[in-house]
Structure formats: structure tokens, C-alpha cells
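Researcher: Sequence recovery benchmark, item below. Answer with residues only.
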């Protein structure tokens, strides 16, 4: 493991322009976080930002080492991973009936007019759609409509870095196939390209950029249906965003977690019929195994971040209790907020 120089944490650097840049230009519809108290941290990056990583800067490098204990992409390690994988495998199982039969009573249909909403045999609701596992048109029970929607949502195409040269990416993909003799997608090539910048982003103290790189890689895990692994990485990203990961070699920017991260977590959990309150240990394991930062220098602990996640999903998960005195709190008060189980 890399031996890094330890220096006492110094004063935070003021870089107001970088903080302004950190804010996502386009505000998305807010879900599940209902009340955005702060601007969202920026998530998407362009190839131009990668180019900036070529310039070595000794000051940044020295300062970054205060925070770092590693510069690699680590493996998610949790005894709960098999159980979570199993939940997701079940949640992503094929829905519907391919044989033009009612999914309830198996009454046969020669053709399904679009307007049929209820079975002529048993009277129960169903609808016609394509399923994500094989693209086959199926008849699905009405009560599975939401699950089907979530299955599609969770295999949405992964994001690519803006301005990526697709021809170069295609060449990289072909090289991968020649090397390994197996099928590779553009996203596989993208994943490896992104991974190459991780150490540079960390060593130059561009922690927000590092989060973005990790996000693009996590997208690939999700897109490849490694849902449990992707969830663990999204948890880690939630932790880093909540801690205000900055490109100014600090944490503590006054920003909120990018809504895309919250949405990904929420959609995955919903598909597996889980809530944030079911994930405390997996959340902690994920962050403890994935982090490259020393916990002592982070504004918020894992427990505090977990409490924040649980709180932000409380309404969307139907756990909100009416009129509990939850006024907006200043930051130092929020820091002492602990989850009560
Ligand atoms: Zn029927």
C-alpha cells in the first residue's frame, strides 16, 4: 500500500469560484429529497476536465495527502453482499407471460387489443408490455406494473463522460475483445478509461471529480445488472457528496447530494422491496471497504450520513410521522443528530 505523508489538517482553502462551479447547472425534479436546502453538488463531467489532470501540482499533492489513505479503486467488501445480490436477483426476475395467456388464469388470447385492461375470463387486470431481460412482449399482472417500471429504470443505459470521442472508445472496445476473446461493450471500454484517471484525481485533490469518476464506473455496474455492488458504490458516493467533496482539496462544501445518486439508491431499493432502514449494516460496510479517505478528516461520520439518508427518504418510503418537531437545523446542530432505531 502506498505510504502517504501525514500532515495535520490545515485551514480550509477558500475557492469560491470552484464552489460555484460545483453546483449543477440544471436542477432536476427533486425526488426523493423533497426540500433541497442547498444546491446540488455537480456530478457530470466532460473530457476537458480530465485534461486538467495532466498538470502535476506539488502543493495540491501535498495537501491531498492529508486526506488520503489509498489511491486505488477498492473492492466492496461486506458479509451481506450475497444476501443483497440474492434479493436483487429475485427482484429482477422475468415478469409476465409470453404465451398470450392471462397472467392470472391463463385464458388464451389470439390477439390483445391495447384497450383490454381486464381479463375476459377472470376479470383481473393485466397489460401488454416488453420486459427488460429479453425484450419479449409479455402480458403482465396489473399489480406488477410498478416493479416492471423499476426493472426498466435500473438497467437504463449508463452515463458517458460528456464529449467522449466515440470512435476512440470503439477502438478501445475492439482491442478489449481481441485481447480477451469475449464480447465487450462501449461501456466496458469507458469503465477502463475512467478508472485510469482515479489516482490522478485523488492525488491532485480533485475529490469532487473523483466522485464523478466513481459514479461513471458505478453506472456501468448497475447497467451490467450488478445491482448489489452498484448500491454499495452509490452509498459511498452519497457519503462523499454529503461530506461536500470539493475540487479545492477539501471536504465541507455547502452542497447537497446530487439527486441522481439519491434516485439511483431509491430505485434500486424499491425494486428489491427494501427501504433505507433495512440497509444500515450494508451502508456502513460499503463505505468502510470502499473509502480512500481518513474518516477523521470528514465533516460527517458514516452514522450521521446514514441518518441523513434515512431522513431524506422518510416521506418517499412512507415512514414520515406527522408533526415531529423537525425544524431546519444549522449545520453544527445537524452534526449531533443520531439515528434512533
Ligand atoms: Zn384471467
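Model:
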Amino acid at each position: 500500500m502506498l505510504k502517504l505523508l501525514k500532515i495535520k489538517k490545515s485551514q480550509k482553502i477558500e475557492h469560491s469560484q470552484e464552489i460555484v462551479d460545483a453546483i449543477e447547472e440544471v436542477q432536476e425534479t427533486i425526488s426523493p429529497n423533497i426540500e433541497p436546502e442547498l444546491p446540488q453538488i455537480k456530478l457530470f463531467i466532460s473530457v476537458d476536465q480530465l485534461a486538467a489532470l495532466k498538470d502535476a501540482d506539488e502543493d495540491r499533492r501535498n495537501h491531498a495527502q492529508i486526506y488520503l489513505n489509498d489511491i486505488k479503486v477498492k473492492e466492496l467488501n461486506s458479509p451481506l453482499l450475497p444476501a443483497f445480490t440474492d434479493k436483487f436477483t429475485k427482484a429482477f426476475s422475468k415478469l409476465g407471460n409470453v404465451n398470450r395467456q392471462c397472467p392470472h388464469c391463463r385464458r388464451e388470447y389470439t390477439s390483445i387489443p391495447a384497450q383490454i385492461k381486464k381479463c375476459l375470463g377472470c376479470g383481473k387486470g393485466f397489460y401488454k408490455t416488453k420486459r427488460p431481460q429479453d425484450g419479449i412482449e409479455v402480458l403482465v399482472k396489473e399489480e406488477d406494473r410498478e416493479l416492471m417500471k423499476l426493472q426498466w429504470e435500473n438497467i437504463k443505459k449508463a452515463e458517458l463522460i460528456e464529449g467522449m470521442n466515440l470512435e476512440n472508445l470503439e477502438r478501445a472496445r475492439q482491442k478489449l475483445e481481441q485481447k480477451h476473446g469475449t464480447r465487450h461493450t462501449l461501456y466496458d471500454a469507458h469503465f477502463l478509461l475512467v478508472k485510469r484517471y482515479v489516482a490522478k484525481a485523488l492525488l491532485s485533490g480533485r475529490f469532487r471529480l473523483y466522485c464523478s469518476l466513481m459514479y461513471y464506473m458505478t453506472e456501468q455496474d448497475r447497467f451490467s445488472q450488478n445491482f448489489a455492488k452498484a448500491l454499495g458504490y452509490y452509498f459511498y458516493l452519497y457519503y462523499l457528496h454529503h461530506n461536500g467533496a470539493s475540487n479545492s482539496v477539501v471536504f465541507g462544501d455547502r452542497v447537497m447530494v446530487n439527486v441522481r445518486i439519491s434516485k439511483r439508491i431509491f430505485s434500486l431499493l424499491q425494486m428489491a422491496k427494501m427501504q433505507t432502514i433495512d440497509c444500515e449494516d450494508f451502508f456502513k460496510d460499503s463505505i468502510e471497504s470502499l473509502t480512500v479517505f481518513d474518516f477523521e478528516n470528514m465533516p460527517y461520520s458514516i452514522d450521521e450520513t446514514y441518518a441523513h439518508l434515512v431522513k431524506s427518504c422518510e416521506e418517499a418510503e412512507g415512514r414520515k410521522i406527522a408533526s415531529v418537531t423537525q425544524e431546519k437545523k444549522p449545520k453544527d446542530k445537524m452534526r449531533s443528530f443520531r439515528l434512533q432505531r
